[in-house]
Fold this sequence. Notes:
By secondary structure, the chain is α/β, with parallel strands linked by helices. The chain has helices at 7-11, 25-33, 43-50, 60-73, 89-101, 131-144, 164-177, 193-201, 220-226, 236-255, 268-275, 277-287, 327-337, 372-378, 398-405, 483-499, 515-524, 544-553; strands spanning 17-22, 38-41, 78-81, 106-110, 151-156, 182-185, 208-210, 228-233, 296-301, 321-322, 325-326, 342-347, 360-363, 387-391, 394-396, 411-416, 434-437, 457-463, 473-481, 530-534, 538-540.
Amino acid sequence: VSEDKSLRARMAQPGPIVTIGAHNGLSAKLGAEAGFEAIWASGFEISASHGIPDANILTMAENLDAAKMMVDVVDVPVIADCDNGYGNAINVIRCVEAYERAGIAAICIEDNIFPKRCSFYAGVKRELASVEEHAGKVRAAKGAQKTDAFAVIARTEALIAGWGMEEALRRGRAYADAGADFVLVHSKSKTPDEVLGFAERWDRDVPLVCVPTIYRDTTVETLHAAGFKVIIFANHGIRSSIKAMQETFATLRKQGFTGSVEDRVVPLERVYELIGVDTMKSNERTFMPAEAPSVTAVVLAAGASTSLGPLVEDRAKTMLDIKGKSILARQVETLNTCGVKNIAVVRGYKKESVDLPNLRYYDNDQYATTNEVVSLLTARKETQGPFLMLYGDIVFEPGMLQKLLKSPADITILVDRSWNEGTRPADARGVPDLVKLEDAATEAQGAHRFVGADRPRRVVKVSNRLENGEGHGEFVGMALFSEQGSAAFGKIVAQLEAEHEGPFHDAPSLKDASFTDLLQELIDRGVEVQALDVYKGWLEVDTFEDYQRAWALL
Length: 554
Ligand code: SPV
Ligand code: MG
């Protein structure tokens, strides 16, 4: 027992040690918070909290577990009610060893025979151990403790059993003489006369303990003045909680809505405070890897498709149905699965058809005369922090997105290294956005089969005008911007808007620019853009043939 949790240390100080009964960690915490000097791990409360009588039905181990819960969460001494020591002197020895090891300040053992009955139950068999036997248990307990800080309270039930004052005093003295640190005299008289009378005749140096449950109008001051050092309010915690729960439950049952009991219950925050959620949070911050800031997805879905004909007569391309689900619905599902919950969609062509729930919408009403960069800037608000740019007409495997989201780089794009394997017939594909990488093995060297390594590579060029053989892969239409990446993006875009005139990379002007033109601008201005390899697993629905392939693939 540490010094501050020791009852013996506290005993040397003046004034009463007012103790509150508890049955678990939470009730012990409330007791300590209310300012009680010690916690009484009450057999009455612990049994009641298990829903069973206080009659040595619970084992020592169960009582010890409850007491340990208390020791673990309070800084005041915990006094454990150990009934009759769970058996004879031999049981008492093990009891002391176990409780002292657990950090309990003191145990209390009473002279009931095993199995005991709660002192207050009327009409139950009540037998006391002989004074010699109980004094022997007290000696056993004192002999078993390892440290001076530990204390043993010997309790006599002589008054409870109706054996009279003389017997109570005889027993109290015998236990004090056997080495008890305190003597508890228990009474169920409605007046304090018995315990006050006992105290008056007490002729040992050993301090006294009482439990004023039935003589309920006697104050701590009176009892302390009479000679009681420790005063135990043994069971008022659990009794008040029974009353509170009963009333709350009855109201809830009747009213059928939780607001009906809001004024009877503590706010959730009070529970969090009691159990130390703040400490847990700060420990999370200190000891656990920081979570990546949450990413917002911006889906570019404004453009009108020229080559899908009647399929997109009444809807935006992103709303094309593939096996019962639109492209956008599939994207949202995958984004959510990967933990991306903030999703913004830029609409344009047939914007009213894009109406999935829980998304934020931005409209590029100039979609017919502008391109991706303008669309992206329509949702500028969403690009202030980490964001993920996504074309609205791609379907892809979740693994690709997972891989991209893990990238530590400031700007990362996914590049399909299988693009030139002929999986997309030349006549069916649009003009692909090709990506040229630094240090990448070229197709000519036959090394592209070894791609897919997780090592990111720097993008040198991205364009739909790269010659065959010059590009190493195809831009998949997904790009991730970190906090820094989005800051660089924002700064450069602002400059471009203010100053740029004339052609812009592959586009005749900034307003006609695609996302890849913007990427090239970032690269040309020295911003590093990294590529992560993927190998198939996605497709862009641009033509009728793409659409057919999507049906076949999914
Ligand atoms: C207890 O709290 O379990 C006690 C005190 O032993 S009393 O219930 O009053 O006996
Ligand atoms: Mg008890």
